[in-house]
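Contributing new complexes? Match this layout with 2-acetamido-2-deoxy-beta-D-glucopyranose.
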Amino acid sequence: MGVDKARLFLAIFAVLAPAEAFDWSSSPWAWHCADGTCVKGAREHISNPTSLETCKLTCGKDGPVWPKPDYITIGKEVSYFLPKNLAHDLLCSGDSCNLLKQAFAIFEDNLNKYNPTYSNGEASWTGPWAPSVETHQVSVHIVLQMDQSHLKMDTDESYQLTVQTAAGGSTSAVTITAPTFFGARHALETLSQLIDYEESTNSLQIVNIVTIQDSPAFHYRGLLVDTSRNYVDIPTIKRTIDAMAATKLNTFHWHITDSHSFPLYLETLPKMFQYGAYTYRQVYYPADVRDIVQYARVRGVRVLPEFDAPAHVGHGWQWGEKDGLGKLVVCLDKEPWMSYCVEPPCGQLNLANENIYKVLGDIYKELVDLFSPIDLFHYGGDEVNLNCWNTSKEVTDWMEASGFGRDDDAYYKQWSVFQDKSEALLTKANKGIEVPGVIWTSHLTEEGRVGQYLDNKRYIIQIWTTGKDPLIAELVKEGFDVIMSNYDAWYLDCGFGAWVGEGNNWCSPYKGWQAVYDNSPHKIVSDLAGAQYTSQVKGGEAALWTEQADSENLDARLWPRSSALGERLWSDPDHNWRTAETRFIHHRQRLVQRGIMADRIQPQWCHQNEELCYA
Ligand SMILES: *[C@@H]1O[C@H](CO)[C@@H](O)[C@H](O)[C@H]1NC(C)=O
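Output block (do not edit by hand):
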């Protein structure tokens, strides 16, 4: 292309694609609300044409909020306003006040992100605006009833929210009342979803009249991310927490280590990461962990550390012999792996070596400190392979010399002794304060064993088998509280190609958002055990094991499917996914606006043409 031609091209391009967006009100298309559905049509034929965003804010049966509130009434009108006219006053005390201030700043940033020009924390809000847009005030008044700055299993996360705007008035008054910071934070999240960008005015818009009362169905609403199969970088973990906050999930279950790698820097045991991290850059340093814990707290999320043992250990533990502590792990990298573990590389703690308790005690001390204050601790405890122990000479010699014998029950007994000792070490590390332990379903929790080996006052059982497993009935009847993570609905790694061998991976097929949404912990327990046991379900969690995921694709694996989980656990809807579909697709757009690389669920046409993509 010659210089002149290039100039001509640029000139034409400048006309076709001006820096300022086209005035959207000149589009031949617009939306209107018909019986709770946003319908697209020719602007000239609609009596009150609105943008898609205004329609989504004011039209849906459940409003635009995800997860849907207990109770919501919502007006049909919006007011346009600019971020500079957003005011707030906070009635709070103590630490929760600091948290609330930070949460408000996040809320303001989220509003900015609705502006399509948002980039690196800035959006361009340029006029001219009509006087009614330029001067409209939104004042947010927040009242916290108590000062609680750490999430616990019994934290009250409820809130009330109202928006009032007098007809033709120049102020929208928002009032939020919540017992705790955590409820108020959820309210701000909800409020951000009652606001959107409006293209035709280059401003924000807020629904004029709203009343909401809201509280979660379950206290524990979790998402597991594994950072051992593959390392997940810190910005990606933070994005995950952002999306959890947008969805009112409250527990980031961090499966930090496993047999594959040990990406955690421990001050007293630096050899663990030196031997076990994939590279020295793929490591979480203490400052990183503290930063993540605080980042999450401001967003209403507790970070629950899991230190999986006595199986699922390996890399990172190889220094024992050199340091005079003997072999800490047996079966490490042993082949053929199928005989000694569920996936390569194998490894289990060497039960015959008392030094494992010294090391575990040190690990727990650092973990308790890093995640302080802990209100739960996850011991892992899954997938022990008895054959691994029973073919390791040190272990078999010890079993025989101690007179334990070597049958199944002998090993289960010693495994439970290990669990008891671990629990005592954790309590000691936590300065004598006992916190409930979470433990996966395993051979120890199988029929007839759980009552014998585990104390229902000390452990919550996380169920990963299917939602039809009769064991679930036994667990609740034995008095255990449970967290549901049944893999037939809530394992997000299922349905991709196999990573050992060919075909599809073990828990295929892929669990679509509809399956995630419809999986009801209350129904599972009530069908298997009886309705009187449903109060023992503390909540649920989706899991992403990262054999086939890392920072590059984590967002799309998790989102928007985990938002479907969010509504199940927050709202426990009495209907299936169909009623939620248009709101869900809209929420997915919201996640994208906030920088989450969420998967596409449908063509954009379906977002613009509500309820026309049905089977
Ligand atoms: C361990 O090995 C011994 C000897 O082969 C066998 O008798 C025993 O059943 C094995 N135990 C388990 C739990 O596999």
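Reviewers usually confirm one structural detail per submission. For this one: Residues 1-19 have pLDDT under 50 and may be disordered.
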